[in-house]
C-alpha cells in the first residue's frame, strides 16, 4: 500500500507511476475479480469505494480501479487516475437494456452517452457532447469479435437516479430514438476524458431491462443482476476490455 504522503487525497492512489492504461468498474469486488485475471497483480490502494490494482495483461501494464455507484464519485477517480499518469480509461460496467433485441449478458459498446449524470452539467454547458474516442470503440469492437461475443454498438443513457421518482422521464423518447442501454457513470468519463486529452471508451454488460417503466415485474420478477448469465457476461466483458486496452497500447507504441 502507498503511504498517505505519497497518495492522492480522495482515492489514495499513488501520486505518480501508474500505468497509462486503466479499466474502471463500479464494484470494488469486481475490481478484485478483474485484477485476478492479471499477471503480477498488486493492490495499491483501497479507500472508501475506490479500490485500485496494478498488473499486466499479456505484457501490457494496466490499472484496475473501482469508482462506486454514480457519476459524482466516479469522476473523482477519473481525475486522480489522470493525475497519477493514466492516459487511457475503459469503463467495464453493467447496464439495463432499452433497445429491443439486446439480451442479458450481451455487451454494449457505447459510442456516446446522454449527459443525465448529475455532475457534468455543473462543469461544462449541457450542449457539450459526451463521446467515446473512436479508437476505443474500434478496439472494443475488435476484441469482442475476436472473442466471438455478442455485442451491440450505440448511444447509452447515463442517468444519476437509479430508481424512478415523481418526475416524468424521457424513456419512451429515448427508446424510440434507438438508445441502447441505461447506466450511471459513463457520460462523466467521456466528458472528463475529452476535456483533458484522454482516450476513453465504455463496454457495458446487460444485466436486465431498464429498471423503470420498461420492466414488467410480473413477467420478469423484477430487477436481478445476480444471475449466471450476467456473471458470465461480466467475465467475458472483462477479458474483452483488457484485450481492447492491449490493442490501444500497441497502437500508441
Word description of this protein:
With 253 residues, this protein is of the alpha/beta class. The protein has seven helices and ten strands. The protein has helices spanning 28-35, 71-83, 134-146, 171-176, 186-195, 217-220, 228-252; strands spanning 21-25, 39-47, 50-57, 60-66, 88-97, 107-116, 130-131, 151-159, 181-183, 199-209. The chain has a five-stranded mixed beta barrel. Helix 4 (171-176) links the parallel strand 8 and strand 9 (181-183). Helix 3 packs across helix 7 (228-252). The radius of gyration is 17 Å and the shape is globular. Pfam families: PNP_UDP_1 (PF01048). It catalyses: uridine + phosphate = alpha-D-ribose 1-phosphate + uracil. InterPro entries: Nucleoside_phosphorylase_d, Nucleoside_phosphorylase_sf.
What's the topology here?
Layout: E1 21-25, H1 28-35, E2 39-47, E3 50-57, E4 60-66, H2 71-83, E5 88-97, E6 107-116, E7 130-131, H3 134-146, E8 151-159, H4 171-176, E9 181-183, H5 186-195, E10 199-209, H6 217-220, H7 228-252
Parallel strand pairs: 1-4, 1-5, 5-10, 6-8, 8-9
Antiparallel strand pairs: 2-3, 3-4, 5-9, 6-7, 6-10
Amino acid at each position: 500500500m502507498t503511504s498517505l504522503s505519497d497518495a492522492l487525497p480522495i482515492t489514495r492512489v499513488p501520486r505518480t507511476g501508474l500505468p497509462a492504461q486503466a479499466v474502471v468498474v463500479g464494484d470494488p469486488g469486481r475490481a478484485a475479480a478483474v485484477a485476478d485475471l492479471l499477471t503480477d497483480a498488486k493492490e495499491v490502494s483501497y479507500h472508501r469505494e475506490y479500490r485500485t490494482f496494478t498488473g499486466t495483461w499479456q505484457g501490457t501494464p494496466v490499472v484496475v480501479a473501482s469508482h462506486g455507484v454514480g457519476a459524482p464519485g466516479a469522476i473523482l477517480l477519473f481525475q486522480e487516475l489522470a493525475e497519477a499518469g493514466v492516459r487511457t480509461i475503459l469503463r467495464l460496467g453493467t447496464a439495463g437494456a432499452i433497445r429491443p433485441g439486446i439480451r442479458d449478458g450481451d455487451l454494449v459498446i457505447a459510442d456516446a452517452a446522454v449527459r443525465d449524470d448529475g455532475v457534468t452539467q455543473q462543469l461544462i454547458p449541457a450542449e457539450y457532447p459526451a463521446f467515446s474516442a473512436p479508437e476505443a470503440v474500434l478496439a472494443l469492437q475488435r476484441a469482442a469479435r475476436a472473442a466471438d461475443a455478442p455485442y451491440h454498438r450505440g448511444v447509452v443513457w447515463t442517468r444519476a437516479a437509479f430508481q424512478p421518482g415523481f418526475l416524468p422521464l424521457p424513456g419512451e423518447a429515448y427508446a424510440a430514438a434507438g438508445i441502447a442501454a441505461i447506466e450511471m457513470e459513463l457520460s462523466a468519463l467521456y466528458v472528463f476524458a475529452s476535456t483533458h486529452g484522454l482516450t476513453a471508451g465504455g463496454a457495458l454488460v446487460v444485466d436486465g431491462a431498464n429498471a423503470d417503466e420498461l420492466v414488467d415485474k410480473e413477467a420478469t420478477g423484477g430487477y436481478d443482476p445476480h444471475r449466471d448469465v450476467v456473471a458470465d457476461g461480466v467475465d467475458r466483458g472483462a477479458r474483452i476490455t483488457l484485450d481492447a486496452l492491449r490493442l490501444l497500447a500497441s497502437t500508441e507504441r
